[in-house]
């Protein structure tokens, strides 16, 4: 099987997960995905990652070790996208 492109990975994730924002970068060997989904709210980072792996399914079983991801809720993404995110990140 040919190595997936960043576009392939992005499409696979989008098919299995409703994303508010999805960006995948990569060279066929290593990928980095930024995934923003409302359903991540209340989930630990590990559970979020499991959710993304579930969305990818068997398609990337071989390549999945080469996928790094940042999983955020829309609220976290909004905070992170602002210049003052270091201060704002500590509120509860």
Can you give a write-up of this model?
The structure is a single chain. The chain is of the alpha+beta class and 92 residues long. Helices cover 38% and strands 20% of the residues. The protein has a three-stranded mixed sheet with strand order 1-2-3. β2, α2 and β3 form a beta-alpha-beta unit. The longest helix has 12 residues. The protein is globular and about 40 Å long. The chain starts with 5 loop residues before the first helix and ends with a helix.
Radius of gyration: 14 Å
Helix content: 25-40%
Q: Would you report the number of β strands?
A: 3
Question: What does the main sheet amount to?
Answer: 3 strands, mixed
Helix-strand sequence: HEEHEHH
| Straight-line N-to-C gap | 46 Å
What is the residue-averaged pLDDT?
85
Shape: globular
Poorly predicted spans: 85-92
Number of DSSP helices?
Answer: 4
Give me the side-by-side strand order of the main sheet.
1-2-3
Strand proportion, as a percent range, falls in: 15-25%
Query: Helix- and strand-based class?
Result: alpha+beta
């Amino acid at each position: 099987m040919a190595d997936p492109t960043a576009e392939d990975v992005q499409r696979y994730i989008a098919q299995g997960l409703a994303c508010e924002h999805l960006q995948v970068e990569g060279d066929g060997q290593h990928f980095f995905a930024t995934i923003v989904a409302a359903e991540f709210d209340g989930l630990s980072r590990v559970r979020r990652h499991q959710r993304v792996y579930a969305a990818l399914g068997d398609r990337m079983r071989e390549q999945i070790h080469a996928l790094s991801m940042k999983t955020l809720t829309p609220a976290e993404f909004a905070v992170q996208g602002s210049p003052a995110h270091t201060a704002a990140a500590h509120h509860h």
